[in-house]
Inverse folding.
């Protein structure tokens, strides 16, 4: 459970992060991306087609109680997280695609999140349902800074670039903030939590990586783009999920429903880091192989 | 006195429109006078904007450049105690530092030495010692190279600048922080040095305190006084310092502006400067000419990778671009460029090395504006010939001589060749250098009877325009036939699947020399057979390459000229290994 002040702080942090996210792109970048939208469309398919389904399947397979299930399904329906951009950068992925996917999935979230949440949480009892109005409200509030960010970038490149940087840094900070403020207060709850909840929190990300990669390759994206889409798929906007829960549930229920979003946020950082190191190794090997081929062609062209 | 057709200035008659043929001597007696004049005319207008790849930028107005270069001049003369005529070098990629340092040095009555920041320590040491450099402004990125050779040179004062110098504070610190802690490209050094910004501030303070009139340092300078030592020879041998006077450069500035008079609006132009300012092309055309005319320079620190130009082109209404073949080629391959070509371009200028016809055609189709090729050398400040804007679109042509420039084509004995025949291009005009610094033999070889011998072979067509055939030294002789690599490179480059190509000649027992082609593919499906068939259908038998070697990239100079001599060395070396 977070205090009112912390909730408000989280809300403000999210707005600045959204501002920074918008400031990372210009209208021109969108125009260029829309000329060949396959990559983004595949990403959106993974984001809103795959992830909610994975979350739902996991919740069902692990027979999670309603309080946990709603948390997991909510996380499955979230748009991409901003930290995916940082992990993509370190894994030597296609950064421009990652940024575009994160921004696009956030822009369409206002429609897609209520839709997917309604579909997949329809089987959950009333008191654990998240009112649609809440979600639309939160997303609308966050959509505004995103668009303002894009406009700022166009007006003044310096201000835009600095805001982008601030947003990126805050994106990392906010997760640490969440973990640091929630975990110490809920030790007992964590120890009492059973395996299924942990499996769900960790599994959502991992299965997201695997299936995101698989679907992209199936839809004929090259291996580097597929790795980028994999990361983008598995990494959801944890803090956004937390914010929605905070605004939708009162005290004691809030504590329960918050469990999975927070656990997810904690573990996704760990699993993403591991996957990033692995992906980076793959990209480096691919680049080396290309260099070898260069040298090879000189040798054979005698 | 032989009065040939070349000396009767027939070009003025043939191409009268849009060019200021009646060019009078520049009114300014020196570059500092020109700089001061520009500040008076354009004061608060933006002169330079340096743009980073992510769009972050810093800007200086004409007034700011004027004040800061005054300050730097005072610093050089009063604080460092340099005498008039002392050589001061600037070694930096394009940044706001370049104009402040260059103009400051000239205002101090000193001689500017432009140094390539990518030089190795060996090359730096040679240039510093050859020129007798006493003070150096160097970018922090390469300070470690300097540290290693400093004691082997006569450089006594080191000023360190950074790429985002003079940017707004927050942005400057972010960029420097990222460069130092994230990218780790700023080396730590133990060298004794002063920060460039601090030197400028110090000089400005001194100027105020002692009420120094900076014009006292340069008022007496005239056209004949040495302004810049511009080193050349990179593609063909050891670097030599061309001595360019104030007159050389000021004349060439006026000649350049005269050629583009038709579309040029003083005070309104915006030029994209991705080419290095330490190379004579951008130095004279972008830094000096556009400055004199009140234009705005959009500086890009590094054109590699080409994506670095994206924000510069998208965020500013660029009206002129100066570039080389490699740059235009790379730009047109970028989706963000060919999907949304810049809308306000008036014209693009091509130079530095031969422009390929295929590149020019594609550009004009894509952007709807002309790509005008010019020709010149470091030794001629640089402009010699230029395609007239009012002329017919003619690829492969370097156009006509600039106003007040005399051009002749001669054979090995110095006699003029017949009309339409190839001959070595020689130049006479106010832009021709004073000679090579401390190299009387080299000077005597190139400057003969007042004419500068370029070493380039050219032909004059019936419409009185010139075409460069190739460099004399790169010519290949096959079975007694003269073959010019350029011609073959153009043919190969015209193939859709080819990005670029370089032709070299290697010794052959049977024919004397034979042709080798190094090719960079644009489309990976390109095969040797396709290329060979393409060449055979466009070239006579002996010109068709005997072998094609595919590469991912070709060795180039910083300005993008393909280093044929490196490829030739490699090819000959491999050949010797095989026969050994």
């Amino acid at each position: 459970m977070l205090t009112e002040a912390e909730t408000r702080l989280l809300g403000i942090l999210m707005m600045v992060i959204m501002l920074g996210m918008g400031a990372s792109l210009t209208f021109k970048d969108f125009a260029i991306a829309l000329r060949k939208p396959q990559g983004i469309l595949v990403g959106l398919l993974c984001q809103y087609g795959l992830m909610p389904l994975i979350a739902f399947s996991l919740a069902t397979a692990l027979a999670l109680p309603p309080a946990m299930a709603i948390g997991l399904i909510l996380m499955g329906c979230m748009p991409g997280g901003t930290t995916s951009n940082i992990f993509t950068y370190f894994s030597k992925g296609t950064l421009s695609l990652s940024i575009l996917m994160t921004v696009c999935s956030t822009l369409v979230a206002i429609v897609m999140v209520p839709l997917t949440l309604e579909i997949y949480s329809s089987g959950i009892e009333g008191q654990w349902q998240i009112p649609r109005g809440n979600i639309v409200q939160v997303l609308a509030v966050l959509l505004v800074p995103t668009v303002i960010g894009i406009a700022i970038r166009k007006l003044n490149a310096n201000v835009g670039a600095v805001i982008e940087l601030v947003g990126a840094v805050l994106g990392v900070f906010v997760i640490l903030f969440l973990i640091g403020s929630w975990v110490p207060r809920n030790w007992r709850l964590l120890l009492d939590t059973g395996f299924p909840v942990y499996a769900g929190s960790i599994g959502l990300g991992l299965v997201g990586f695997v299936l995101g990669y698989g679907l992209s390759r199936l839809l004929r994206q090259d291996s580097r783009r597929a790795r980028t889409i994999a990361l983008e798929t598995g990494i959801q906007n944890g803090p956004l999920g937390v914010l929605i829960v905070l605004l939708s549930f009162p005290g004691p229920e809030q504590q329960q429903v918050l469990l999975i979003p927070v656990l997810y946020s904690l573990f996704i950082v760990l699993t993403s880091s591991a996957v990033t190191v692995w992906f980076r190794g793959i990209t480096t090997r691919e680049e080396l192989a290309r260099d070898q081929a260069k040298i090879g062609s000189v040798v054979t062209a005698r | 006195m032989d009065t040939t057709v070349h000396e009767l200035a027939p070009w003025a008659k043939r191409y009268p429109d849009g060019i200021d043929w009646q060019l009078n001597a520049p009114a300014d007696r020196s570059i500092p006078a020109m700089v001061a004049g520009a500040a008076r005319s354009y004061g608060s207008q933006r002169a330079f904007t340096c743009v980073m790849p992510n769009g972050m930028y810093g800007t200086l107005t004409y007034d700011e450049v004027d004040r800061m270069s005054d300050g730097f001049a005072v610093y050089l003369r009063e604080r460092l105690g340099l005498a008039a005529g002392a050589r001061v070098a600037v070694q930096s990629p394009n940044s706001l530092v370049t104009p402040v340092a260059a103009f400051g040095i000239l205002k101090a009555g000193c001689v500017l030495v432009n140094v390539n920041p990518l030089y190795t320590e060996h090359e730096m040491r040679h240039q510093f010692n050859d020129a007798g450099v006493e003070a150096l402004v160097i970018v922090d990125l390469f300070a470690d190279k300097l540290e290693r050779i400093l004691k082997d040179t006569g450089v006594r004062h080191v000023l360190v600048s950074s790429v985002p110098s003079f940017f707004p504070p927050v942005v400057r610190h972010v960029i420097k922080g990222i460069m130092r802690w994230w990218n780790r490209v700023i080396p730590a050094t133990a060298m004794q040095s002063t920060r460039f910004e601090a030197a400028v501030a110090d000089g400005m303070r001194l100027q105020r305190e002692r009420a120094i009139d900076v014009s006292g340092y340069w008022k007496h300078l005239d056209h004949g006084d040495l302004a810049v030592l511009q080193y050349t020879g990179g593609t063909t041998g050891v670097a030599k310092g061309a001595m360019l006077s104030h007159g050389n450069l000021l004349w060439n500035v006026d000649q350049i502006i005269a050629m583009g008079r038709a579309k040029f609006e003083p005070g309104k132009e915006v030029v994209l400067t991705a080419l290095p300012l330490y190379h004579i092309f951008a130095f004279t055309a972008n830094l000096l000419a556009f400055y004199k005319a009140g234009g705005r320079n959009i500086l890009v620190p590094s054109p590699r990778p080409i994506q670095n130009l994206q924000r510069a082109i998208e965020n500013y209404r660029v009206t002129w671009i100066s570039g080389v073949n490699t740059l235009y080629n790379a730009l047109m391959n970028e989706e963000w460029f060919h999907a949304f070509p810049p809308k306000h371009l008036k014209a693009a200028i091509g130079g530095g090395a031969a422009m390929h016809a295929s590149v020019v055609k594609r550009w004009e189709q894509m952007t709807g504006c002309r790509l005008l090729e010019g020709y010149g050398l470091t030794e001629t400040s640089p402009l010699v010939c230029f395609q007239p804007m009012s002329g017919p679109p003619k690829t492969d042509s370097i156009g006509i001589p600039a106003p007040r420039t005399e051009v002749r084509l001669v054979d090995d004995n110095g006699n003029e060749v017949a009309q339409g025949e190839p001959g070595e291009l020689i130049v006479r005009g106010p832009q021709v250098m004073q000679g090579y610094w401390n190299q009387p033999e080299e000077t005597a070889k190139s400057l003969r009877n007042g004419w500068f011998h370029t070493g380039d072979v050219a032909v004059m067509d019936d419409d009185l325009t010139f075409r460069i055939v190739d460099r004399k030294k790169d010519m290949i002789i096959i079975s007694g036939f003269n073959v010019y690599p350029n011609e073959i490179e153009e043919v190969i480059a015209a193939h859709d699947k080819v990005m670029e190509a370089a032709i070299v000649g290697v010794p052959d027992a049977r024919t004397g020399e034979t042709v080798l082609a190094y090719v960079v593919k644009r489309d990976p499906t390109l095969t040797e057979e396709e290329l060979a068939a393409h060449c055979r259908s466009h070239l006579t038998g002996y010109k068709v390459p005997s072998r094609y070697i595919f590469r991912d990239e070709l060795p180039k100079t910083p300005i993008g000229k393909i280093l044929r001599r490196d490829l030739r060395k490699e090819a000959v070396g491999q050949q010797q290994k095989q026969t050994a």
Notes: The CA atoms of residues 380 and 432 of chain B lie 4 Å apart. The radius of gyration of chain B is 24 Å. Chain B touches chain A through 24 residues (CB under 8 Å).
